[in-house]
Prior knowledge:
17 helices, 6 strands, 63% helix
Amino acid sequence: METTPERRPPGPVAVLRQRIQAVPWLTSAVFAAGLIAALLLVLREWSRASSLLQDGKSFTDSLQDPAQRTGWLEFIRSAWRVTAGCLLPAAVLALLRQRGRALILPLAILCTLLALYWLGTDLAENLHRSLNDPLGMQPSSAAYTGKLILTCCFIISPPLLLLIYYRATMLDQYLVRSFLNPFLLCIGGITGIMITMDLLNNAGDFIDAGFGLSRVAMYYLGQMPRILVSITEAALLLATLFALGKMSRHNELTAMSSAGRSVLRMLTPLLVFGLWCSLAMLAMNYQLAPEAQRVKEETRRNAGNKTARETAVYNVLYRNRDHLRTWYLHSVPYDLREDNPMQDVYVWQQNAAGDLDEAWFARRGLWIPETGDWRLYDITKYDYLDPATGTRRKAPRRTEIAYVEQKNWRESPGGMLSDKLDADYLGVPALLSCLKSRDTLTDKAIARYETALQWRFALPFRCFLIVLLAAPLGIVASRRNMMGGVSAALCIFIAMFFLSNMLLKSGEGSILPPFAATWGINLIFALLGTILFWYRSQNRPPPTLPPLQWFRAR
């Protein structure tokens, strides 16, 4: 006589979870209480800071003042901490009690809060830069607005994806789950390898600079846009080939086709996910990824006390023929601000006769975008002419000055080095600002900036192209053909990478137009992917060029 095994009593965690799930409306009540508490606390913080922050000024005008800008940032961060702390219990209960479609609303609330926090901090930090460029170039407010819209759309898109997933059919959900597992594994594995290798190379510099664990973690968190832009294409390729190859090996795709689904309908979930990846990469490559590359070089320089020439423009020589002034700037940082000024600013002033009148040698210099004035620190001034007689001195008079604010010089750093900036470190707003002063740029500089601008939009679109190319090659009729599809997809990926870099350099060198250099390879492979899709939808093998047959005897 068979005996049924005794059931073990549930553990304390399972009992607690069952009791929590048995209470009706618990999550909604805790969320409502946390939301009310958060609103009251945020209003209290606002009442404390409103008189100091606004001071009779509008939000845009108050951000021009560094002190009020710091106050806005502190208020936004404190409001976020209060709101997150009040809503944290409701989030924990939602994870314990809710499953499936019920998680869409908590995720939407979380993403909305993240989007509002990011929007507030970015406006407080960068809105004044979009109105007054720190280097003196003409800013592009439309490009900055596009950055805000793209990033906010990316942050609030996960709930929409989850809603689409639960509204899809069971076959679509199964395909997505089969694809997401290897995709997330590839993203996590490649990211971990890259961070580990970088940490091993720079651990000594971090230790010497006194970086704590939190600062190192924030550094690599800031590098995530750059890392994701560089690895997402490879992760999409590997995940698509693995998922479709596995389903083909188990005849699952054949069963879907027998149920009446076309190839395009079967692969629609992957194509939609590829489009979303393109949107995500566009939001990151718009400005975050180029700035992350620049921050990486600056952090390495500061951590290791080394001179990294990529973080600033060095040895800038500029001649103002209208006002007879000659400038030499030893280094101009991309992120020019009060705590990161220019180093070694030299100015020679001549009179109408062409004789040297005076010279200014400053250790540090700063240009104020709001007023257009220059601030010089630790100055050595030489006067070559006697102001009383107008004759040249036998020896120049030397004067040591700690600080001076020069209002008569109308030159700006952007006008001096608008054609010398590294386009790899510039986002779309900065590139458009450079191109607005194209009258002062050389043809080579214009081609370099226009090519980089087009590349900011062309590169993210390759995520969709990778899925378009790899999906028909990943569907195989037998195990024997699987290696052929994988090898073909890898060859196409390598060819896309090689040709893209070659055409990109051709565009930067004015050999090809910027649009052809950046979008040409995308158009070619989009056409190739469409052809492969057509052959696969007709259940026909794509055309091949077997090199070994060329040497066979006829």
